[in-house]
Amino acid sequence: MLEYDSLACLPSSEELPDSDDTPVDNQLQHLIPGLLEAILAMVWANRMDWFFGADMGVYYDPNQPPIVPDGFLSLGVERFFDENLRPSYVLWEEEKVPILTLEVVSQRYRGEYTTKKDEYAKLGVLYYVVYHPTRRRKPRLEVYKLVNGAYELHSDNPVWLPEVGLGIGMERGTYQGITREWLYWYNEAGKRLLTPEERAQVLAERLRAMGVDPDSI
């Protein structure tokens, strides 16, 4: 008797488009997710069960175009190190819905509070993070948690995410030589995790304290 494999009939990540040739709206929508990913790559260097995507298509239906968050985090998935990496994130291959999605709001709204929010809720994305870089009178950081099929707002700073094991928040700092407010990961005590640049500076200071010139290594 032949066994029917429904997944074999669906397109793979290699067959699906990995770009629609539409650029991101501004540089922050690229840099902010990139910083969050860079911090995770250090603190979770030995973990092999996570993936952070930035401006990447998330396919949930072979007959629909992908959702493209500015950033998203998935846990319980394989961490690839081959040269091709993931061309896109395909739910019927990964079998894990992202636990967190991030949208950085540009000067014009792109469905952050309508289409995208509804789609993320339907998919079962646990945390939906919205960051408004230029907002003044309302909170710039909004973290929504899915509770009984609807998102509830948490506007603390930082917001602890127990299912992730990290908090997310905003504060002023320097990344790639740019001093401004950035999004960072935090530990449970509310202490900000260091960026790659900051870790390198700490290491250099420790070496100098030991009488070692870090530039000679």
UniProtKB/TrEMBL annotation:
Coiled coil, from the record: none
InterPro entries: Nuclease_put_TT1808, Restrct_endonuc-II-like, Uma2
Residue ranges annotated for the Putative restriction endonuclease domain, each copy included: 32-156
Protein name from the UniProt record: Putative restriction endonuclease domain-containing protein
Source species of the chain: Brasilonema octagenarum UFV-OR1
